[in-house]
Protein backbone atom coordinates (compact mmCIF):
# COMPACT_ATOMS: atom_id res chain seq x y z
CA UNK A 1 0.00 0.00 0.00
CA UNK A 2 1.15 3.52 -0.82
CA UNK A 3 -1.45 5.75 0.77
CA UNK A 4 -1.68 9.20 -0.80
CA UNK A 5 -1.25 11.93 1.79
CA UNK A 6 -0.60 15.17 -0.06
CA UNK A 7 -0.97 16.59 -3.58
CA UNK A 8 0.94 19.75 -4.58
CA UNK A 9 0.87 21.65 -7.88
CA UNK A 10 4.00 23.57 -8.82
CA UNK A 11 3.11 26.16 -11.46
CA UNK A 12 6.32 27.35 -13.07
CA UNK A 13 7.21 29.64 -15.97
CA UNK A 14 10.46 30.83 -17.53
CA UNK A 15 11.04 33.55 -20.13
CA UNK A 16 12.27 32.55 -23.59
CA UNK A 17 15.25 34.54 -24.92
CA UNK A 18 14.23 34.27 -28.58
CA UNK A 19 10.43 34.02 -28.89
CA UNK A 20 9.26 31.66 -31.63
CA UNK A 21 6.03 30.84 -33.40
CA UNK A 22 4.36 28.08 -35.41
CA UNK A 23 1.59 28.40 -38.01
CA UNK A 24 -0.82 29.02 -35.15
CA UNK A 25 0.62 32.48 -34.68
CA UNK A 26 1.22 31.89 -31.00
CA UNK A 27 4.40 33.59 -30.00
CA UNK A 28 6.09 31.49 -27.36
CA UNK A 29 7.48 34.10 -24.97
CA UNK A 30 7.58 31.84 -21.94
CA UNK A 31 7.82 28.13 -21.22
CA UNK A 32 5.78 26.88 -18.33
CA UNK A 33 4.21 23.85 -16.79
CA UNK A 34 2.04 22.50 -14.01
CA UNK A 35 4.22 19.98 -12.21
CA UNK A 36 2.32 17.62 -9.90
CA UNK A 37 3.91 16.28 -6.73
CA UNK A 38 2.17 13.51 -4.80
CA UNK A 39 3.46 12.31 -1.43
CA UNK A 40 2.52 9.10 0.29
CA UNK A 41 2.15 8.42 4.01
CA UNK A 42 5.40 6.40 3.97
CA UNK A 43 7.35 9.26 2.39
CA UNK A 44 7.44 8.30 -1.30
CA UNK A 45 7.22 11.27 -3.68
CA UNK A 46 5.87 10.90 -7.21
CA UNK A 47 6.09 13.50 -9.99
CA UNK A 48 3.76 14.20 -12.88
CA UNK A 49 3.16 16.91 -15.45
CA UNK A 50 0.12 18.42 -17.15
CA UNK A 51 0.22 19.76 -20.72
CA UNK A 52 -1.38 23.11 -21.51
CA UNK A 53 -2.30 26.21 -19.48
CA UNK A 54 -0.77 25.46 -16.10
CA UNK A 55 -3.08 27.54 -13.90
CA UNK A 56 -6.08 25.71 -15.34
CA UNK A 57 -4.52 22.33 -14.62
CA UNK A 58 -3.83 23.46 -11.07
CA UNK A 59 -7.45 24.56 -10.61
CA UNK A 60 -8.74 21.14 -11.72
CA UNK A 61 -6.34 19.30 -9.47
CA UNK A 62 -6.70 21.43 -6.36
CA UNK A 63 -10.46 21.83 -6.52
CA UNK A 64 -11.60 18.52 -8.06
CA UNK A 65 -9.03 15.73 -8.04
CA UNK A 66 -6.77 16.11 -5.01
CA UNK A 67 -9.56 15.91 -2.39
CA UNK A 68 -10.79 12.66 -3.97
CA UNK A 69 -7.46 10.84 -3.97
CA UNK A 70 -6.12 11.67 -0.49
CA UNK A 71 -6.20 8.49 1.60
CA UNK A 72 -6.30 6.15 -1.39
CA UNK A 73 -3.68 3.61 -2.48
CA UNK A 74 -1.51 4.82 -5.39
CA UNK A 75 -1.42 1.23 -6.68
CA UNK A 76 -5.11 1.60 -7.55
CA UNK A 77 -3.98 3.93 -10.32
CA UNK A 78 -6.51 2.90 -12.97
CA UNK A 79 -9.34 2.68 -10.45
CA UNK A 80 -8.48 6.23 -9.42
CA UNK A 81 -8.32 7.29 -13.10
CA UNK A 82 -11.82 5.91 -13.75
CA UNK A 83 -13.19 7.53 -10.63
CA UNK A 84 -11.78 10.98 -11.45
CA UNK A 85 -12.79 10.75 -15.10
CA UNK A 86 -16.34 9.70 -14.33
CA UNK A 87 -16.59 12.47 -11.81
CA UNK A 88 -15.55 15.18 -14.29
CA UNK A 89 -16.78 13.98 -17.68
CA UNK A 90 -20.20 15.62 -17.48
CA UNK A 91 -18.36 18.95 -17.49
CA UNK A 92 -15.65 18.13 -20.01
CA UNK A 93 -14.35 14.81 -21.28
CA UNK A 94 -11.47 16.39 -23.20
CA UNK A 95 -9.00 19.22 -22.82
CA UNK A 96 -7.62 20.49 -19.55
CA UNK A 97 -9.74 18.18 -17.39
CA UNK A 98 -7.83 15.29 -18.95
CA UNK A 99 -4.44 17.05 -18.93
CA UNK A 100 -4.84 17.57 -15.20
CA UNK A 101 -5.79 13.90 -14.80
CA UNK A 102 -2.68 12.96 -16.84
CA UNK A 103 -0.40 14.70 -14.34
CA UNK A 104 -1.92 12.73 -11.49
CA UNK A 105 -1.69 9.43 -13.37
CA UNK A 106 2.02 9.95 -14.16
CA UNK A 107 2.80 10.87 -10.54
CA UNK A 108 1.00 7.74 -9.31
CA UNK A 109 3.03 5.56 -11.69
CA UNK A 110 6.20 7.20 -10.35
CA UNK A 111 5.09 6.27 -6.82
CA UNK A 112 4.22 2.69 -7.82
CA UNK A 113 7.63 2.25 -9.44
CA UNK A 114 9.48 3.68 -6.46
CA UNK A 115 7.52 1.52 -4.02
CA UNK A 116 8.35 -1.62 -6.05
CA UNK A 117 11.94 -0.59 -6.84
CA UNK A 118 11.24 -0.92 -10.58
CA UNK A 119 11.25 1.52 -13.49
CA UNK A 120 7.72 2.29 -14.72
CA UNK A 121 8.15 0.52 -18.08
CA UNK A 122 8.81 -2.79 -16.28
CA UNK A 123 5.38 -2.46 -14.66
CA UNK A 124 3.41 -1.65 -17.82
CA UNK A 125 4.46 -4.54 -20.00
CA UNK A 126 8.24 -4.46 -19.99
CA UNK A 127 11.10 -3.29 -22.17
CA UNK A 128 10.66 -3.84 -25.89
CA UNK A 129 13.75 -1.65 -26.08
CA UNK A 130 16.27 -0.06 -23.71
CA UNK A 131 16.90 2.98 -25.89
CA UNK A 132 14.95 4.92 -28.49
CA UNK A 133 15.78 6.84 -31.60
CA UNK A 134 14.73 10.45 -31.17
CA UNK A 135 13.94 13.23 -33.57
CA UNK A 136 14.65 16.90 -32.99
CA UNK A 137 11.54 19.08 -33.01
CA UNK A 138 12.32 22.66 -33.84
CA UNK A 139 12.57 24.88 -36.90
CA UNK A 140 9.83 27.19 -35.72
CA UNK A 141 9.59 30.67 -37.20
CA UNK A 142 11.76 33.20 -35.39
CA UNK A 143 13.24 35.83 -37.71
CA UNK A 144 10.69 36.59 -40.42
CA UNK A 145 13.44 38.07 -42.62
CA UNK A 146 15.60 34.94 -42.48
CA UNK A 147 13.05 32.13 -42.49
CA UNK A 148 14.93 29.90 -44.92
CA UNK A 149 18.42 30.64 -43.62
CA UNK A 150 17.47 30.10 -39.98
CA UNK A 151 15.78 26.78 -40.81
CA UNK A 152 18.85 25.55 -42.67
CA UNK A 153 21.16 26.65 -39.84
CA UNK A 154 19.03 25.04 -37.14
CA UNK A 155 18.59 21.75 -39.02
CA UNK A 156 22.31 21.56 -39.78
CA UNK A 157 23.07 22.18 -36.12
CA UNK A 158 20.82 19.27 -35.04
CA UNK A 159 22.60 16.98 -37.46
CA UNK A 160 25.94 18.20 -36.11
CA UNK A 161 24.70 17.35 -32.59
CA UNK A 162 24.05 13.80 -33.74
CA UNK A 163 20.34 13.80 -34.58
CA UNK A 164 19.41 11.57 -37.50
CA UNK A 165 15.80 12.79 -37.70
CA UNK A 166 14.37 16.33 -37.64
CA UNK A 167 10.84 17.75 -37.68
CA UNK A 168 10.24 21.24 -39.02
CA UNK A 169 7.30 23.63 -38.90
CA UNK A 170 5.45 24.65 -42.03
CA UNK A 171 2.47 26.94 -42.59
CA UNK A 172 3.87 30.32 -43.53
CA UNK A 173 0.74 31.41 -45.38
CA UNK A 174 2.37 30.51 -48.69
CA UNK A 175 2.73 26.87 -49.72
CA UNK A 176 5.43 28.03 -52.18
CA UNK A 177 7.49 29.50 -49.37
CA UNK A 178 6.90 26.40 -47.22
CA UNK A 179 8.11 24.21 -50.03
CA UNK A 180 11.15 26.39 -50.66
CA UNK A 181 12.05 26.22 -46.99
CA UNK A 182 11.58 22.43 -46.73
CA UNK A 183 13.58 21.93 -49.94
CA UNK A 184 16.43 24.07 -48.58
CA UNK A 185 16.50 22.02 -45.37
CA UNK A 186 16.39 18.73 -47.27
CA UNK A 187 19.31 19.83 -49.44
CA UNK A 188 21.27 21.01 -46.39
CA UNK A 189 20.85 17.84 -44.28
CA UNK A 190 21.12 15.37 -47.17
CA UNK A 191 19.13 12.25 -48.00
CA UNK A 192 20.13 10.20 -44.96
CA UNK A 193 18.40 12.38 -42.37
CA UNK A 194 14.76 11.55 -41.68
CA UNK A 195 12.68 14.69 -42.15
CA UNK A 196 9.10 15.37 -41.02
CA UNK A 197 6.87 18.43 -41.33
CA UNK A 198 4.27 19.82 -38.93
CA UNK A 199 1.62 22.30 -40.09
CA UNK A 200 -0.16 22.70 -36.74
CA UNK A 201 -3.44 22.27 -38.64
CA UNK A 202 -3.30 25.41 -40.80
CA UNK A 203 -4.35 24.04 -44.21
CA UNK A 204 -7.60 23.25 -45.99
CA UNK A 205 -8.05 19.74 -47.36
CA UNK A 206 -7.19 20.63 -51.00
CA UNK A 207 -4.21 22.77 -49.96
CA UNK A 208 -2.90 19.97 -47.73
CA UNK A 209 -3.20 17.39 -50.50
CA UNK A 210 -1.50 19.63 -53.07
CA UNK A 211 1.36 20.55 -50.76
CA UNK A 212 1.60 16.97 -49.53
CA UNK A 213 2.25 15.69 -53.05
CA UNK A 214 5.15 18.12 -53.43
CA UNK A 215 6.51 17.17 -50.02
CA UNK A 216 6.47 13.50 -50.92
CA UNK A 217 9.01 14.28 -53.63
CA UNK A 218 11.32 15.57 -50.86
CA UNK A 219 11.08 12.27 -49.00
CA UNK A 220 9.16 13.68 -46.03
CA UNK A 221 8.40 10.89 -43.60
CA UNK A 222 5.17 12.23 -42.20
CA UNK A 223 2.87 15.23 -42.59
CA UNK A 224 1.75 16.22 -39.11
CA UNK A 225 -1.56 17.99 -38.48
CA UNK A 226 -2.19 19.10 -42.06
CA UNK A 227 -5.76 20.19 -41.25
CA UNK A 228 -8.01 21.05 -38.32
CA UNK A 229 -8.37 18.31 -35.71
CA UNK A 230 -12.18 18.65 -35.72
CA UNK A 231 -12.42 17.63 -39.39
CA UNK A 232 -12.22 13.87 -39.22
CA UNK A 233 -13.73 13.43 -42.71
CA UNK A 234 -11.06 15.79 -43.99
CA UNK A 235 -8.34 13.67 -42.36
CA UNK A 236 -9.73 10.59 -44.09
CA UNK A 237 -9.50 12.44 -47.42
CA UNK A 238 -5.95 13.72 -46.90
CA UNK A 239 -4.71 10.39 -45.57
CA UNK A 240 -6.17 8.47 -48.52
CA UNK A 241 -4.91 10.99 -51.08
CA UNK A 242 -1.26 10.98 -49.97
CA UNK A 243 1.28 8.19 -50.09
CA UNK A 244 3.22 9.73 -47.21
CA UNK A 245 2.06 9.09 -43.65
CA UNK A 246 -0.36 11.59 -42.13
CA UNK A 247 -0.01 12.14 -38.38
CA UNK A 248 -2.02 13.93 -35.70
CA UNK A 249 -3.73 13.60 -32.36
CA UNK A 250 -1.67 15.74 -29.99
CA UNK A 251 -4.88 17.62 -29.22
CA UNK A 252 -7.06 14.53 -28.77
CA UNK A 253 -7.83 12.93 -25.42
CA UNK A 254 -8.68 9.52 -23.95
CA UNK A 255 -9.50 6.21 -25.65
CA UNK A 256 -12.93 7.57 -26.62
CA UNK A 257 -11.39 10.55 -28.38
CA UNK A 258 -9.03 8.35 -30.37
CA UNK A 259 -11.58 5.60 -31.09
CA UNK A 260 -13.08 7.15 -34.23
CA UNK A 261 -9.73 8.34 -35.58
CA UNK A 262 -8.29 4.84 -35.56
CA UNK A 263 -11.46 2.95 -36.46
CA UNK A 264 -11.80 5.11 -39.57
CA UNK A 265 -8.03 5.15 -40.18
CA UNK A 266 -8.28 8.90 -40.48
CA UNK A 267 -4.54 9.13 -39.75
CA UNK A 268 -1.64 6.74 -40.35
CA UNK A 269 0.04 7.77 -37.11
CA UNK A 270 -1.67 8.89 -33.90
CA UNK A 271 0.31 11.03 -31.47
CA UNK A 272 -1.22 11.00 -27.99
CA UNK A 273 0.70 13.02 -25.41
CA UNK A 274 1.15 11.27 -22.05
CA UNK A 275 0.80 14.63 -20.25
CA UNK A 276 -2.46 15.46 -22.06
CA UNK A 277 -4.35 12.43 -23.38
CA UNK A 278 -4.85 10.82 -19.97
CA UNK A 279 -1.44 9.83 -18.65
CA UNK A 280 0.51 6.61 -18.99
CA UNK A 281 -2.52 4.42 -18.16
CA UNK A 282 -4.71 5.95 -20.86
CA UNK A 283 -2.00 6.19 -23.52
CA UNK A 284 -1.44 2.44 -23.11
CA UNK A 285 -5.10 1.92 -23.99
CA UNK A 286 -4.94 4.36 -26.90
CA UNK A 287 -1.88 2.54 -28.25
CA UNK A 288 -3.64 -0.83 -28.05
CA UNK A 289 -6.64 0.63 -29.82
CA UNK A 290 -4.42 2.09 -32.55
CA UNK A 291 -2.37 -1.07 -33.05
CA UNK A 292 -5.53 -3.19 -33.27
CA UNK A 293 -6.64 -1.01 -36.21
CA UNK A 294 -3.28 -0.98 -37.98
CA UNK A 295 -2.59 2.63 -37.02
CA UNK A 296 0.85 3.51 -35.69
CA UNK A 297 1.22 5.19 -32.28
CA UNK A 298 4.12 7.64 -31.96
CA UNK A 299 3.61 9.88 -28.92
CA UNK A 300 3.73 13.65 -28.96
CA UNK A 301 5.99 15.23 -26.32
CA UNK A 302 6.36 18.86 -25.37
CA UNK A 303 7.30 19.70 -21.85
CA UNK A 304 9.66 19.22 -18.95
CA UNK A 305 11.99 16.35 -18.13
CA UNK A 306 9.09 14.75 -16.23
CA UNK A 307 6.89 14.52 -19.32
CA UNK A 308 9.90 13.39 -21.34
CA UNK A 309 10.72 10.62 -18.85
CA UNK A 310 7.09 9.47 -18.78
CA UNK A 311 7.12 9.38 -22.60
CA UNK A 312 10.33 7.31 -22.55
CA UNK A 313 8.77 4.66 -20.29
CA UNK A 314 5.66 4.58 -22.46
CA UNK A 315 7.86 4.16 -25.56
CA UNK A 316 9.94 1.41 -23.93
CA UNK A 317 6.81 -0.68 -23.41
CA UNK A 318 5.23 0.08 -26.80
CA UNK A 319 5.27 -2.99 -29.09
CA UNK A 320 7.01 -2.81 -32.46
CA UNK A 321 4.53 -1.71 -35.07
CA UNK A 322 4.48 -4.16 -36.76
CA UNK A 323 6.72 -6.80 -35.18
CA UNK A 324 9.45 -7.93 -37.57
CA UNK A 325 13.05 -9.16 -37.84
CA UNK A 326 14.35 -5.59 -38.04
CA UNK A 327 11.46 -3.46 -36.81
CA UNK A 328 11.32 0.31 -37.17
CA UNK A 329 10.76 1.33 -33.55
CA UNK A 330 8.60 4.34 -32.67
CA UNK A 331 10.50 7.63 -32.43
CA UNK A 332 10.82 9.88 -29.39
CA UNK A 333 9.85 13.50 -30.01
CA UNK A 334 12.77 15.40 -28.49
CA UNK A 335 11.73 19.02 -28.66
CA UNK A 336 14.76 21.34 -28.78
CA UNK A 337 13.35 24.83 -28.24
CA UNK A 338 14.50 26.78 -25.21
CA UNK A 339 13.11 25.14 -22.08
CA UNK A 340 14.91 25.12 -18.71
CA UNK A 341 12.38 22.61 -17.35
CA UNK A 342 13.54 20.05 -19.88
CA UNK A 343 17.26 20.77 -19.46
CA UNK A 344 17.67 21.78 -15.80
CA UNK A 345 14.87 20.20 -13.76
CA UNK A 346 16.55 16.82 -13.24
CA UNK A 347 19.88 16.06 -11.57
CA UNK A 348 20.95 14.11 -14.67
CA UNK A 349 19.47 15.71 -17.80
CA UNK A 350 17.92 13.46 -20.45
CA UNK A 351 20.30 13.56 -23.39
CA UNK A 352 20.70 12.09 -26.86
CA UNK A 353 23.81 10.58 -28.40
CA UNK A 354 23.69 10.06 -32.18
CA UNK A 355 19.98 10.73 -31.79
CA UNK A 356 19.58 7.86 -29.34
CA UNK A 357 18.10 8.37 -25.87
CA UNK A 358 18.42 5.77 -23.09
CA UNK A 359 15.27 4.66 -21.26
CA UNK A 360 15.70 5.49 -17.54
CA UNK A 361 16.29 2.38 -15.42
CA UNK A 362 16.04 3.77 -11.87
CA UNK A 363 12.78 3.12 -9.95
CA UNK A 364 9.64 5.02 -10.97
CA UNK A 365 10.19 7.57 -13.71
CA UNK A 366 13.91 7.20 -12.99
CA UNK A 367 14.59 10.90 -12.56
CA UNK A 368 15.60 13.06 -9.60
CA UNK A 369 13.98 16.49 -9.39
CA UNK A 370 15.92 19.62 -8.43
CA UNK A 371 13.51 21.52 -6.21
CA UNK A 372 15.63 24.67 -6.53
CA UNK A 373 14.59 24.88 -10.20
CA UNK A 374 10.91 24.75 -9.22
CA UNK A 375 11.51 27.46 -6.62
CA UNK A 376 13.43 29.66 -9.07
CA UNK A 377 10.64 29.72 -11.67
CA UNK A 378 7.61 29.42 -9.41
CA UNK A 379 4.55 31.49 -10.38
CA UNK A 380 2.51 32.85 -7.50
CA1 LIG B 1 2.90 18.91 -33.45
Summary, kept brief:
With 380 residues, the chain is α/β, with parallel strands linked by helices. It has helices at residues 54-69, 77-88, 96-116, 120-123, 147-161, 175-189, 205-216, 232-241, 254-263, 279-292, 305-316, 340-343, 371-376; strands spanning 4-21, 27-40, 45-50, 131-137, 165-169, 194-198, 220-224, 245-248, 269-270, 296-297, 332-335, 352-353, 356-358.
CATH topology of the largest domain: TIM Barrel
* Unreliable spans: none
Order of helices and strands: EEEHHHHEHEHEHEHEHEHEHEHEEH
Oligomer: single chain
The Cα radius of gyration reads 20 Å
Q: Tell me which ligands are bound.
A: calcium ion
- Helix proportion: 25-40%
Which CATH architecture of the largest domain would you pick? Alpha-Beta Barrel
